[in-house]
Design a protein that fits this description.
Helix content: under 10%
Number of helices: 0
Distance between the termini: 40 Å
Structural class: mainly beta
Shape: globular
Number of strands: 11
Length: about 130
């Protein structure tokens, strides 16, 4: 059974940075596409980025391009999301998710495409 555990959230000032981590237990990273998602209070969960199972394709939604970077460390079975130049609009609970049905070079940052979810980590952006 695949289990995902996120960490790295916290309180940061506008313009600051955080690095989120997602450790995958029960599999190796190349069995799944991974995605990062976030949910602000009163809003629907939205996609942020995704990475194909082969690791060769990474996608970002427009509002994080140039600020967020998704990466993976296969040796540590860990997926990361580097968040830079944060704004209050970036605040919310960030979730890591894994999807099994994508092709080797495919992914899509759409929540309904992913079967396994972590518990989330809170990101707060405030001065």
């Amino acid at each position: 059974q695949l289990q995902l555990v996120e960490s790295g959230g916290g309180l940061v000032q506008p313009g600051g940075s955080l690095r989120l981590s997602c450790v995958a237990a029960g599999t190796t990273l190349d069995n799944y596409a991974f995605g990062w998602f976030r949910q602000a209070p009163g809003k629907e969960r939205e996609g942020v980025s995704c990475s194909s199972s082969g690791g060769g394709s990474t996608q970002y939604v427009d509002f994080v391009k140039g600020r967020f970077t998704m990466s993976r460390d296969n040796a540590k079975n860990t997926v990361y999301l580097q968040l830079n130049n944060l704004t209050p609009e970036d605040a919310g609970v960030y979730y890591c998710a894994a999807g099994h049905h994508f092709g080797y070079s495919d992914c899509m940052p759409a929540p309904f495409e992913y079967e396994y979810w972590g518990q989330g980590t809170q990101v707060t952006v405030s001065s």
